């Protein structure tokens, strides 16, 4: 069985994690055959229009004023954010950049107002504010303890981001029946050939 491709289809996925899960998986690197179907990865954020559409579908961008239109700079920042998020989930020191090379910085202000709660603002650009909401989701997940259950499948031809909802919280594969079995079969074949 393939892992769910939509965050809303993942059982036990906390609401705050859904945005991170879906954003990280806009880069689909799966490239294998599963149940007779060839998976070929794709980038759901190929153009500024794709980014704008994705942000609107996730209620991060509203209205149709000219400043709500994504441009190439927004797309570049969104891809950098996604790459850094995926590297952090992979926990690979080379990809994450121990020297900070893999870090993406966002400056924003959180304003607390009596009777209105907290409000996030990032300058006047609505698209950058939408991207900052993704950063805030990562921060919130870190603070509330759900970040450590968001993982990346270690299969090189998969790398799907998944939420580990197992009781012990030690799931390794996005799908034990699919990627787990493929890895075990490959290891078995390597042992047999030597």
Note down, in words, how this protein is organized:
Helix content is 41%, strand content 12%. By secondary structure, it is an alpha+beta fold. α1 (15-24) crosses α5 and α3 (72-90) packs parallel to α5. The strands form 4 sheets. It has a two-stranded antiparallel sheet with strand order 1-4. The protein has helices at 15-24, 48-57, 72-90, 93-96, 126-144, 176-193, and strands at residues 27-28, 33-34, 37-38, 42-43, 109-113, 117-121, 150-152, 161-163. The protein has one domain: Orthogonal Bundle (Jann2411-like fold), CATH 1.10.3300. The radius of gyration is 18 Å and the shape is globular. InterPro entries: ABATE, ABATE_dom_sf, Znf_CGNR. This is CGNR zinc finger domain-containing protein. Pfam families: ABATE, zf-CGNR.
